């Protein structure tokens, strides 16, 4: 059975964007001051409303959610992203329906989402819909139309489309569409090996730090986050590593170092908006004296800045703990 290379499509959508985003579940008891309520499903819906131009980055988190076993939630996430017009999410949905992963198997529904992705002008969507037409998978077989869609993808230099055309539409290629190991940017291993991402030169690996930590490979997660910070001053990695050190996950608990990482993130500007979240978390740490000497006035300044930048939790914290400042 043909399988869609949607991982590569999602990866390309992410790499083409200038910033990072990730998915984490809300858990107030486990994370305390670093409770990632900011990264909950609600947060990403809000982010899609506020920053529609970042939808490719935001929706990549649905893949990470599925990777951690939350297939039903990932399906909802992909559906919302697809509804908002994100072509890689349409391909991802098609994959889920084609394989019956997290939902019922439905080849017609898979083909419908491929067609929608193709109609946006997205080359991978054109290619995969063309292949579906060639095979008659979920749609009536239509060789002429299938070749036409694949030609459109090839006109955009889609590698799979070009390879298929050069082969003379070799049936063997149509039946071998599994996700290749070459989807990994370094082309050395499959995307399931977190350790292999540690020394990667590609910023995509910062996404894998979260997935590695979520699935229990804390050592790889820590090294990935540390390298992302060293290479790119990646603020999400600073927040994530601070969370690890605050909770002592895979390392001895170290509140001082956790708060230092938050301070660094708060003082760094990034396009994805994670600096604002770092400012919120650092403000809370200062206000409560966690890992640093308590300084309510300094904490308030950071919290006010985060609130002004749209972090609702910062505004709520100020209202709850600095009542005189809001009067």
What does this structure look like?
- With 327 residues, the protein is mainly alpha-helical.
- The chain has two domains: 6-183, Serine Threonine Protein Phosphatase 5, Tetratricopeptide repeat, CATH 1.25.40; 233-326, Tetratricopeptide repeat domain (Serine Threonine Protein Phosphatase 5, Tetratricopeptide repeat, Alpha Horseshoe), CATH 1.25.40.
- It is built from 18 helices and no strands.
- The longest helix is centred in the last third of the chain and has 15 residues, at 218-232.
- The radius of gyration is 22 Å and the shape is elongated.
- The model is unreliable at 1-39 and 176-192 (pLDDT under 50).
Could you name the key traits of this structure?
18 helices, elongated, 2 domains, Serine Threonine Protein Phosphatase 5, Tetratricopeptide repeat, disordered N terminus, 327 residues, mainly alpha, 62% helix
| Share of helix, binned | 55-70%
CATH architecture of the largest domain: Alpha Horseshoe
Q: Provide the gyration radius in Å.
A: 22 Å
Q: Structural class of the secondary structure composition? A: mainly alpha
CATH level 3 topology of the largest domain: Serine Threonine Protein Phosphatase 5, Tetratricopeptide repeat
Q: Could you tell me the number of beta strands?
A: 0
Instruction: Outline the low-pLDDT stretches.
Output: 1-39, 176-192
Q: Provide the CATH top-level class of the largest domain.
A: Mainly Alpha
Oligomer: single chain
Terminal-residue CA separation: 64 Å
Number of helices: 18
Which shape, going by the Cα principal axes? elongated
Number of domains: 2
């Amino acid at each position: 059975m043909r399988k869609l290379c949607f991982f590569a499509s999602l990866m390309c959508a992410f790499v083409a964007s200038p910033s990072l985003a990730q998915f984490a579940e809300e858990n107030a008891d486990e994370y305390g001051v670093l409770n990632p309520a900011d990264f909950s499903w609600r947060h990403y819906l809000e982010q899609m409303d506020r920053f529609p131009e970042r939808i490719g980055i935001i929706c990549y988190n649905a893949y990470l959610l599925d990777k951690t076993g939350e297939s039903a939630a990932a399906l909802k996430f992909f559906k919302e992203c697809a509804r908002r017009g994100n072509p890689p999410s349409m391909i991802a949905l098609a994959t889920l329906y084609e394989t019956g992963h997290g939902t019922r198997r439905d080849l017609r529904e898979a083909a419908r989402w491929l067609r929608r992705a193709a109609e946006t002008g997205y080359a991978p969507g054109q290619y995969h819909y063309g292949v579906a037409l060639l095979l008659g998978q979920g749609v009536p077989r239509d060789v002429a139309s299938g070749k036409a869609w694949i030609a459109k993808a090839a006109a955009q230099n889609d590698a799979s489309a070009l390879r298929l055309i050069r082969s003379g539409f070799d049936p063997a290629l149509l039946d071998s569409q599994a996700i290749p190991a070459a989807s990994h940017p370094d082309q050395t291993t499959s995307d399931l090996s977190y350790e292999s991402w540690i020394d990667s030169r590609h910023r995509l690996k910062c996404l894998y730090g979260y997935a590695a930590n979520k699935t229990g490979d804390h050592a790889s997660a820590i090294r990935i986050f540390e390298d992302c910070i060293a290479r790119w001053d990646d603020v999400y990695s600073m927040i994530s590593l601070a969370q690890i050190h605050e909770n002592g996950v895979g390392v001895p608990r170290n509140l001082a170092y956790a708060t230092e990482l938050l301070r660094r993130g708060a003082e760094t500007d990034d396009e994805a908006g994670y600096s604002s979240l770092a400012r919120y978390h650092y403000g809370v740490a200062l206000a409560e004296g966690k890992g640093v000497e308590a300084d309510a006035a300094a904490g308030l300044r950071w919290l006010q800045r985060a609130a002004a930048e749209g972090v609702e939790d910062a505004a709520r914290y100020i209202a709850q703990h600095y009542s005189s400042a809001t009067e």
